[in-house]
Write a structure and sequence with these properties.
With 159 residues, the protein is mostly helical. It is 38% helix and 9% strand.
């Protein structure tokens, strides 16, 4: 018998972790942010996945709606392990071997996870006094390398 890490994880625990991280103590509709939610049973294919209905807008959703994990054929536990391995800086080839995935699927999963991280990255907002060192501005000099060269005191005296 071959021992694989995905056999050691429980699907229900993965969904519990997603629920805790996503909703905290209160489920909100991902469509309208309403808090009046009704549980509508579990998914037939993945028993750990809770389904909901929003009383505000009437739309149905589940634990993965509007997340990077939604709409993919791999089980949530595979995504969680994949994410963990990415954090360990394993290559997609190594992850594919460990999780018994084909290389193309592993590559797509890595792209989805990385793009999800970028999309969720908050906007950088600077406030107060902001300092930066050794700024080199070349705006407006495209194609004119002579205009960008540093001027010396001698250039200023002759120019």
């Amino acid at each position: 018998m071959e021992l694989r890490i995905q056999n050691l994880l429980d699907d229900e625990r993965c969904y519990e972790a997603v629920r805790k991280l996503r909703w905290g103590s209160e489920v909100k509709c991902p469509h309208c942010a309403a808090k009046e939610i009704v549980k509508r049973g579990r998914d037939e294919q993945e028993a750990g996945r809770q389904r909901y209905e929003c009383k505000g807008c009437g739309k149905r959703f589940d634990d993965l709606t509007n997340t990077v994990f939604a709409g993919h054929h791999q089980p949530l536990k595979v995504w969680m392990i994949f994410l963990y391995f990415l954090g360990l800086n394993l290559s997609t080839r190594q992850i594919a071997q460990e999780l018994n995935l084909n290389k193309g699927d592993a590559h797509r999963m890595a792209e989805v996870l990385r793009s999800g991280v970028v999309e969720q990255k908050p906007e950088t907002a600077l406030s107060g006094e902001v300092e930066c060192d050794e700024v080199y501005v070349v705006a407006g000099h495209k194609g004119q390398p002579e205009a960008v060269k540093k001027r010396t005191a001698r250039d200023d005296a002759t120019g």
